[in-house]
């Protein structure tokens, strides 16, 4: 409990390296002439997305999350839902494909088209990785292990971010994806994932995970249920809005052009 | 020549589906905001719920939020195609809200014992009012739906030969 000194001067500061590297790469792309008037709000989304996950592994939040399950829940919302949402909305792959040199861009596009990427970005796979990770975290010895050991906490945070990104991208992503699933499948997977999140939150409330007091479990479950609910509502609106703009009546305005 | 889109669209079905979704979502929203948050009659968890009950409640809560948003986007879509049939849509809303409330009042409250309308009071009056209101909503919705079974959007008839 007392192994983490205040001030965040320990190993945690190493996380600035990947965070700064990602920011520099993105900003360099965004300001380069090839990006073609890249909207400023996407750069802001990316920056906030990196910041949202970074604060969860730095003090004071890391230390507070260690002591208080409600804060841990909050930091999971930041790392597993808010940060992935912001990163997906910042469309990093679109930016990379637009600004990279031809060869790395081709390599990236081949990677995005690969069978492995197709498997990972299939909504059902992404949802299983996302929800499965949560269930493991609360229903196995992982939660006490996270509280004992900071590296386990970091690994779990990385999984939350990666699985959250995959899931969000599979549901509402706008980056080039040669095999995007249809709206119906995405809607069903989204509703089932939200349901799983709700059910898990209520079971945490009803039946505290190992090593937690009832009061702590209740507070954390409420944060998970209502805080997660807000972000899930955003996902629902974004998915429906995508459908709404994809179904706009182009045909009726110029009916003769469509037949060509 | 008519576009492929137009031949596939069915305004009568779409108005009904949009209304149904919005009605289900509205009932779920009222349940959450009025009964859970404002009145605090419903509990987050009442310590007697079965796992089937938690599963069912979680699923319906998730679907309720999705339904209210999707229903409104479908309604916006009907508006921009000039296909709104307001009476039929309203019928769908009443039907959706009524069916949700009846399901909640019979299956979730009574069969699964998931939660009750209120705690520490005699439930009979509450249950009766809850389910009678649900049946009235369903009847009104069914009547409006039946009445508009042959309705055609006004704009659509004007451009039917397009």
Automatic annotation (TrEMBL), chain A:
The keyword Cell membrane applies. The chain crosses the membrane at residues 13-31, 43-63, 69-89, 116-140, 152-173, 185-205, 225-244. It is a multi-pass membrane protein. It is found in: Cell membrane. InterPro entries: Caa3_assmbl_CtaG-rel. It holds the Pfam family Caa3_CtaG. It comes from the Bacteria. This is Cytochrome c oxidase assembly protein. It comes from Arthrobacter zhaoxinii.
Automatic annotation (TrEMBL), chain B:
It comes from the Bacteria. Pfam families: DUF2243 (PF10002). The chain crosses the membrane at residues 20-39, 59-78, 85-103, 123-146. This is DUF2243 domain-containing protein. It comes from Arthrobacter zhaoxinii. Keywords: Membrane, Transmembrane, Transmembrane helix. The keyword Membrane applies. The keyword Kinase does not apply. InterPro entries: DUF2243_membrane (IPR018719).
